[in-house]
Amino acid sequence: MVRFGIFLGLVLSQSVLGPVFAQSSDDATALEPEKVTVAASPGQPGSLELRAWEGPPEVLEFYVRREFEPAWEDPRQLRLLVDTLESLVDDGLDPRDYDWPALRAWLAGPSTDESAWMEAELRASRALLRALDHLTWGRLDPVEVEAIWMHEPVRDEVRHREHVISLASDALRDMSAAFSAARPDTELYGALRSLHLRLRRDLALPEGPKLPSGPLLREGMTDPRVPVLRELLGRLPPEPEADAEYAELYDPALVAAVETFQRSQGLVPDGIVGPRTREALNRSRKERLEQVRVNLERLRWIASLAQPDLVRVDLAGGEVDFLRDGQSLWKARVQVGRPSRPSPSLMSEITHLTLNPTWTVPPTILRNDTLPAIREDPGYLARNRMRILDFSGRELSSDEVDWDRPAGIMLRQDPGPFNALGEVALRFENPFMVYLHDTPSQRLFEREQRAFSSGCVRVERARELVEMLLQNEPETRRLEAMRLLEGDRTRDFHLTRPIPILMTYRTVGLDTDGEVEFRPDVYRLDAALAKALDEASAR
Asked: Can you give the pLDDT at residue 204?
């Protein structure tokens, strides 16, 4: 047999590299033969003298570490790779992105031609590295489709490439373990992969009937839509001898089934079948499959952003929790930005707390909300404890302002229980001017959907979160912060050690029983991400 290292040198200088990587959906990483010069080192079989290299560095590094020994001489190893690549479909990835059809065809009829064998060798290694890269970081760059703003870039390209190459080397010893190590190590990711498999296998089955529109359906009502509702929820129909009126009765057992379904969809579990419940019932398996696919991608994006100590905000789920050493120790509900003013996805660090904050009305809220309220109600400012200031900080009277064309003013709300920010605001660097804060609007936490704010995140039981953050502080500083919080003056308290905060958007989660819970896509982002994934695979 021709030594692999010498033969690789010949192949890399021939046109065979065009077809080897031309089918890649990422042209930016295709090897260009005219830019590669590789020769065998005299007297050193299997070793290469690399004179120039402008191809993918991970491919070169992979073979350098193997001392240019082939990776896929054993057909069983190549078969294992092909089967593993095929299984990526339930990661929401397209196996065709990883040369799966060509590698499968090679296995079906392997050629004895050395150049064809070399082509299969390089295809397989390129596919392995590419698949592991996408599992660890994501198929798409979120900056291009659904940006996560970061105070400091988390990804180190050199370390990331090192990690992927190391996983590829491990894969040659244990393919399954290496691919498992590349995937996000979270319960939700595993649950979504399993659900993707079930939904995909069920696509060929007939869809259930669609629930027609109509008046709100409440317990005890008789309605011709009830039999359809029973079928959609998989409930047994009434006994055959039951009369027609009973068959159409919305009875307590069916109400309980509707409530269970509503919980799984992030809806108010009130047992009342209205437009939103009907829309969720009528969603097809294909639509659910798309929702699972886009959220698998989002989970890959954020996998590397996790920190042992972390404040984590689930925007679509309307929750915040606090992690210490990777364990969630505290959880509460949040109110997030309305669809017209969405809360951003971001990664930053909470650096300080503003205790008993004043609230300066942001320009957008001033223009769109506050000024119209003042024009309609002259007592609005006094009732909401707001003062008028010019840009130098001088307080003005209401009579000094032309409220039809106000200029050069700002409105500031005094601290206190009525203040829009409540007792405390948690500050972190970001270009969106958003932060976490307490709120006097506690009743809104009882709503199932809590997208009410103008972009900032209102936190239920915010004082408890403050106490969690202060646990890292020396006792004297912690007591000082709590004393200031009990006062009525506005003070900033800087944390000795900043705490990372991660705000992300995903339209699936796990309920308290570990079952997948679908959430409404309040910011309408799922369809755009699904389209971007489709377009990436089509290239």
From this structure: 82
Same domain membership, residue 84 and residue 149: yes
E-assigned strand segments in 248-402: 310-314, 319-324, 327-337, 346-355, 359-360, 386-390, 395-396
Tokens in use for 493? 């308290």
Residues 487 and 435 in one domain: yes
Count of domains for the chain: 3
Alpha helices, DSSP H, located in 41-138? 57-65, 75-87, 100-108, 114-137
Helix/strand/coil for 152: coil
Residue 235 lies in a domain: no
Collapsing DSSP to helix, strand or coil, 222 comes out as strand
Q: In the predicted model, is pLDDT for residue 468 greater than 90?
A: yes
Which amino acid is located at 91 in the chain? D
473 shares a domain with 348: yes
pTM score, whole prediction: 0.83
Structural domain for 410, as ranges: 359-414
Using pLDDT thresholds of 50, 70 and 90, give the confidence band for residue 40: very low
| CB neighbourhood size of 286 (10 A) | 12
In a domain, 271, yes or no: no
Q: CB–CB of 434/424 below 8 Å?
A: no
Reported residue count of the chain is 539
Which runs of E-coded beta strand occur in 15-87?
A: 37-40, 48-52
Q: Are residues 342 and 450 in the same domain?
A: yes
Question: Residue 503 is which amino acid?
Answer: M
Q: Which helix (H) or strand (E) holds 427?
A: strand 424-428
